[in-house]
Design brief:
It is a single chain. By secondary structure, the protein is an all-alpha fold. Helix content is 45%, strand content 0%. Helix 2 crosses helix 5 (113-125).
Length: 127
């Protein structure tokens, strides 16, 4: 039963990502990148972190939540305690019990360490 639920959640995730990707940038929230302030956010970080978030994270983590597992929101996550913890998690995400979970891993070719740091700064600067 547990494998069935995990497989179902994964299929929903993949379907959702496919639909959003097919819809183009508007559905991914790229309108956030054109807010007041030009290329810088209120905290002084460039909008690169926002662009990375919109391209890779927003589908499941809109408003700091977690669409796939609402009990594990992005906001307040211990995986944001420091950049090294965050980087290790996005490279090899896992559930608290050590199982794989539904979150995909992001290799260096998908999100470089530099971009991961920009993403981390964006996420941790959000209120």
């Amino acid at each position: 039963m547990k494998k069935t639920v995990s497989a179902f959640a994964f299929l929903i995730f993949i379907s959702f990502v496919f639909v959003v990707h097919a819809q183009g940038p508007g559905m991914m929230g790229h309108d956030m990148m054109h807010s007041e302030g030009g290329n810088e956010s209120a905290s002084g970080n460039t909008m690169a972190g926002a662009e990375i978030f919109n391209a890779h994270c927003r589908v499941c983590h809109a408003n700091g939540g977690n669409l796939i597992d609402p009990s594990m929101p992005l906001k307040g996550s211990g995986k944001l305690s420091d950049f090294k913890t965050f980087l290790n998690f996005i490279r090899q995400p896992g559930m608290p019990d050590g199982s794989r979970g539904a979150m995909p891993s992001f290799s260096r070719s998908q999100i470089s360490d530099t971009h991961a740091e920009e993403l981390y700064k964006f996420i941790t600067s959000e209120k």
